[in-house]
Structure to design on (455 residues):
């Protein structure tokens, strides 16, 4: 086994952390700034542990051995060279940097059985639980092979694409309106029926209860479900990351920040099948002990296709506090700024500042508040929860300097004033193709120097 001690620029950079302080100048509210992970300078290559980047050989054991070897020496950088590195799940330990060189592609196995743990639960592609100082960096690609996991709606694909899915085997359902990757030609099922297997879809990258997390430079694509999911983490930096999947990928969220605090999302490009950059804080009483999403800066990002460019909800019972969203561009999203929830999963927003947003080609609303959102898993009808507890309260939200061309509706707010109030929109111009506003209670939304135009 070959281990190289390399005091390279890469190691020095990761050890000290990047210079992210510039993003925090002149903010409208004071935010806690995340600390970058500190990674020791020790550097090893995946190839030193038997890894083979031929797209055929499984590298699950090579990743595990390399991470274990680094952990025993206090941590360091695991270099993934150019090639296709087929693998099962990868689990982080403390003070580990997974660095993908340009030309490196980590491809997760299409064999679902590789992701089952001892209890029959499905592991994410990359996971870190209760870890400190972990990072994923470089210029390579992480591919979740999501088409082997996701159900497909017939109405969202062309005839050619539909034939391609059927060629994999699988199962048609609902009179040919749905295709499930169940009973595939080359891989076994991991559940007894197609709907049970559909519920087992996993995230691509999930950090849980971690401190000092960095994802920088890489492309993360084609997840079975959500792509990057920091949950109950503190000090998270997502910088210059590309997140992408087919526009019609079911539940293909890009970046979901759950219960996390001191988070920076900067310079990222998102083009996905569901919400783009989303804040969630759980639904109901179980969410409260986990704490709010707090001290989040989302800056200089571009979102192409997504159900919403920036989204709060639908679950946020533990609250959303101290958020700044600035200098972001949404081009081709279904909605631009989306605030969605419903009774039973709502909470309170506090000190939310959104400014200098550019939008174009927005299919539905530029800005929308909805308090009757219903989650409809594929293959089900979905129904609203009847409760008077955990009602959403969208309030203390300041939106200014939004420029939008071609949204169907400029501003939509549906819900009682008790759930939507204290909304301020100023110094903006929205050109709408259908209607300028659809607001239940005009007193809930204050408009100042806002030009709403249509044909």
């Amino acid at each position: 086994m070959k281990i190289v001690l390399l005091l390279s620029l890469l190691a020095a950079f990761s050890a000290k952390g990047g210079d992210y302080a510039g993003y925090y100048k002149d903010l409208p509210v004071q935010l806690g700034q995340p600390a970058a992970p500190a990674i020791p300078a020790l550097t090893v290559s995946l190839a030193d542990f038997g890894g083979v980047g031929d797209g055929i050989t499984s590298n699950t054991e090579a990743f595990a051995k390399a991470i274990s070897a680094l952990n025993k020496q206090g941590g360091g950088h695991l270099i993934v060279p150019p090639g296709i590195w087929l693998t099962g799940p990868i689990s982080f330990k403390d003070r580990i940097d997974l660095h993908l060189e340009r030309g490196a592609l980590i491809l997760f196995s299409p064999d679902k059985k590789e992701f089952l743990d001892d209890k029959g639960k499905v592991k994410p592609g990359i996971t870190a639980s209760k870890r400190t100082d972990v990072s994923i960096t470089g210029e390579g690609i992480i591919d979740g092979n999501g088409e082997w996991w996701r159900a497909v709606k017939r109405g969202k694909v062309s005839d050619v694409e539909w034939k391609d899915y059927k060629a994999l085997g699988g199962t048609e359902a609902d009179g040919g309106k749905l295709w499930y990757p169940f009973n595939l030609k080359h891989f076994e099922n991991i559940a007894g029926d197609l709907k049970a297997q559909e519920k087992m879809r996993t995230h691509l990258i999930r950090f849980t209860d971690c401190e000092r997390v960095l994802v920088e430079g890489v492309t993360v694509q084609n997840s079975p479900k959500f792509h990057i999911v920091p949950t109950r983490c503190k000090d998270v930096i997502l910088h210059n990351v590309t997140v992408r999947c087919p526009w019609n990928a079911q539940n293909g969220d890009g970046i979901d920040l759950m219960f996390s605090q001191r988070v920076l999302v900067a310079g990222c490009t998102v083009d996905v099948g569901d919400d783009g950059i989303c804040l969630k804080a759980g639904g109901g009483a179980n969410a409260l002990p986990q704490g709010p999403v707090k001290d989040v800066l989302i800056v200089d990002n571009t979102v192409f296709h997504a159900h919403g460019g920036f989204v709060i909800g639908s679950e946020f019972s533990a609250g959303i506090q101290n958020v700044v969203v600035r200098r972001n561009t949404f081009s081709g999203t279904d909605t631009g700024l989306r605030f969605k929830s419903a009774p039973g999963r709502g909470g309170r927003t506090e000190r939310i500042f959104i400014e200098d947003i550019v939008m174009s080609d927005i299919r539905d609303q530029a800005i929308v508040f909805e308090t009757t959102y219903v989650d409809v898993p594929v293959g089900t009808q979905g129904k609203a929860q009847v409760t008077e507890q955990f009602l959403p309260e969208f309030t203390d939200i300041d939106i200014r300097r939004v420029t939008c061309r071609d949204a169907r509706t400029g501003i939509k707010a549906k819900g009682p004033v008790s759930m939507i109030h204290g909304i301020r929109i100023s110094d903006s111009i929205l050109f709408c193709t259908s209607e300028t506003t659809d607001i239940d209670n005009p007193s809930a939304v204050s408009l100042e120097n806002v030009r709403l135009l249509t044909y």
The first strand starts at residue 4 and ends at 5. Confidence is low (pLDDT under 50) at residues 1-17. Residues 175 and 444 are 44 Å apart (CA to CA).
